Structures are given as structure tokens and as C-alpha cells.
Amino acid sequence: MMAGTAAATLTGATAGTAHAAAPASPAVTYTNTLAEQRADPHILKHTDGFYYFTATVPAYDRIVLRRATTIQGLASAAETTIWTRHSSGEMGAHIWAPEIHSIDGRWYIYFAAGATDDVWRIRPYVLECAAADPLTGTWTERGRIALPLDTFSLDATTFVVNGARYLCWAQNDPAVGSGTNLYLARMSNPWTITGTPVRISTPTAAWETVGHRVNEGPAVIQRGGKVFLTFSASATDANYCMGLLTASASADLLNPSSWAKTPTPVFASNAATGQYGPGHNQFTVSEDGKSDILVYHDRGYRDITGDPLNDPNRRTRVQKIYWKADGTPDFGIPVADGLTPVRLSSHNFPDRFIRHWDYRARLEPDVSPLADSQFRTVPGLTGTGTVSLESANFPGYYLRHKNFELRVEKHDGTSQFRADASFTAHPGLADPAGISYESYNYPGRYIRHYDYLLNVQTPSTSTDRADATFYAQ
């Protein structure tokens, strides 16, 4: 995958007055939800210029595909059923978690299915299509992936590291205990594993064992010589969340000790943004190829009546992934419905971002939590062609000036607040590729940093103009 938010390169004498190159990973925004009632989503950006999207449908009875030239375009793209469950026997029930992959010029779909006479006899299966267009081509059943242990198994995904292809999946081993673990094996072809599989993760932590003992839905993203494998944990209600395994790309991936598990979830329910049970993710890349995109499902409510698997309202969502200074991914929080937020980096301190701390706006590097430095650019509260910057983790709170200091405060409904929280976005005063924000009610004053605190001031020098220029990432 492409790199995330690599720090821009400074040119010039000092950081305080230097010119910073535009960021390597400029902002991309999408509008959520991308697809209602579509769980376990998978989006592939193919070399033919299309994004291909598949997901679990609530009836659990078929595999569907959409395609579009943009990620957002998938929301309205026509949907084609390319395969339907069998009327009897294997592959006759619980058609779950399809993934579409392009391998050696052919299309493959990996999915899980039960049998008509035993709907919980879930096993992984593969379809193959040799046509250029997988929506109109003929799909051939390559059948079940043969695993040494013939038990409940699902969520197969495939990836390549250093030229070797692997299959990762979730499976129950009665000798280990209830629930599902993650397994890894090499592949001799796209539907056959070779050698002895290894167990690389078992649900043991409290956050992995709520309701059920679950490690499932593996997905891989690679960057900087590291292999990052996300997975989902716990029951498929509001407790569902994402975990992370990390290995060096040069390590023996079939040695379980090569994998380190992050001790806490990396993506979980967020009451403030109204997102619950995020998980079963995959990864794609933005249209310009410069940003990594997290693809996942969640629900817009916490409480579920009955079995969560019978609730049809898991929906497909996307948002940008950011990368920490140490090279690890930062998924942040599942953002609120609507337009996804951006981060704003400083023109002359490119490793520093606008963030709120105790509601005061400031510049800082290595912001944690990430969402403190994410803002949704919305139509200005005053209208008239302005914009307002809404906090990602405090929806309804906006950047506003008070005594010319920038703060994040809750919209109180007054005309004074609307004016203080509205700005006119201009090409950057120090670099037209950037952005400068002019106060709506104090024309000539711009958001700028001074001693790393944000204020609205009138820029008069080149340093002032640099301090008032930001890049959206």
C-alpha cells in the first residue's frame, strides 16, 4: 500500500521560516455510510481503473459485486449477483465475508459457507473467473479450501510478502478451546495451502472474549518493512472491535513468535460519534494512490434485540488511515456519519498538526489520540461561502476564536458563536497549495500559530504568513 502521512521536507534556513513541501499524503474525504446493510466489506482497487466492492448481504444467500471509478461512486453503483448459494448440500447456507482478489490475471473470491443440512458447518471456499470483467464473466467453483483440521473455519484472506503467497483465516480448534483463532499457511495456488498451518493468535484478553472468544476477519497492510495484520474480536455487537498483529516482513511469518499483538484494541465503538461494533475490516487505497483507506462495517446504534447475526444493519464505511512517527498505523476512531475529517499540518512545522488540548487549539507532533487533530470541514455556520471546522471526537464542537484565541467549544446556537466559528478558506498565504483561514467577523485576521498556540492575528511578515498556512492531510 502507499505510505500514509509522511512528514514533508523542509527547505530553507530555519524551520520557523522555511518552505515546506506539500504533504506526501494530501487529504481525501468520503461521505459515510458508503453502503447500507452490507457487512464484512472488501474493496479492491484494480489496475483497470475500477474499484471492486463485495460484502455480506443480510440474507446470507449470495455474493454481489459493484464497481466504480471512485470509492464514493460505489455507494450508487449498480450491484450484480455473481453467485447464489446451492439449493442443497455444501455452500447452501450462511454465505459470509466474500473477498475479491486479482491473482496472476484471474479473479478469485474467497468466502465462507455452511451446508443446507448443517448451517453451522462453516468452511472457506473459492470462486475463480478468467474474464476481464468479473461482473459479466463466468465464475467457476474451485471448491472448499482443504484444511488439516475439519472444523468451523471462515474469513480467509490472501496476501503476498517477499514473493510468497499466504492464506490467513479464522478457525476453531477444540483442543485450544471455544471460539476462533487465527491461522496462517503458505499457498501453492490460489485455492490450495501447502505445509502445516500455524496458529498466530488466540483470543485471551478481556476485549477479545466478550460474548464469544473471537479472533476473525484478518486483513493485511504492509509499510516500511512491516506486516500489519488486523483482526476482529468479541461478539458481533457493540463489543466487536479491531486488534492488531505486527511482524517484520523479513521474519519467518510461519513462526508464531514473529507476531506481536497490540495489547489493546486499535479501533472500537465510540458513543460520541454514534458508531458501534466496528470491525471486519479490509484496506484499499485512495484514488490518487497516496492515502491508505480503512474499509469496515459497524452499526449506528448500540442496543440490539436478539442475535446480532440476525440484525441486518451492519453497514460499510471508509476513512483514511494515518501513520505514526514510529511507522505504525493509527486508525483513530470510527468517525461520525457524513463527511470524513481531515488533519491540518503546519506549513513551517510539517510534523505538527492543529489539535485541541483542554479545548485550547495548538500545534503538536505525534498527536494522541489521533482524533484530537481531526476536523470535519463543513459549510460555515454563518453561510456566505465560509467554512467551519468541527471536531472529529467532539461532534457539535467547533474551532472558534474567543479573545482572538482559538478554542474548541460546543455550538451554543448564538450568532456570536456562528461568526466566531466561521472562516473564509483561501489559498495558503505562504504557499497556494496550502490553506489559510481568514476570520469571518474580523477580516484580515487569520488563524496562525505563535509559540505553538493558535490565535487569529493579522499577518504582516513572511513568518506570519508561514505561520498562517496549513496543509490538509
TrEMBL record:
Xref: InterPro entries: AbfB_ABD, AbfB_ABD_sf, Glyco_hydro_43, Glyco_hydro_beta-prop_sf
Domain of life according to the entry: Bacteria
Signal peptide: 1-20
Swiss-Prot/TrEMBL keywords: Glycosidase, Hydrolase, Signal
Entry keyword annotation includes Hydrolase: yes
Any Pfam family matching the protein: AbfB
UniProt key word Signal: yes
Entries under Gene3D superfamilies matching the protein: 2.80.10.50, Glycosyl hydrolase domain, family 43
Domain Alpha-L-arabinofuranosidase B arabinose-binding positions: 343-471
Family (UniProt): Belongs to the glycosyl hydrolase 43 family.
Protein name: Family 43 glycosylhydrolase
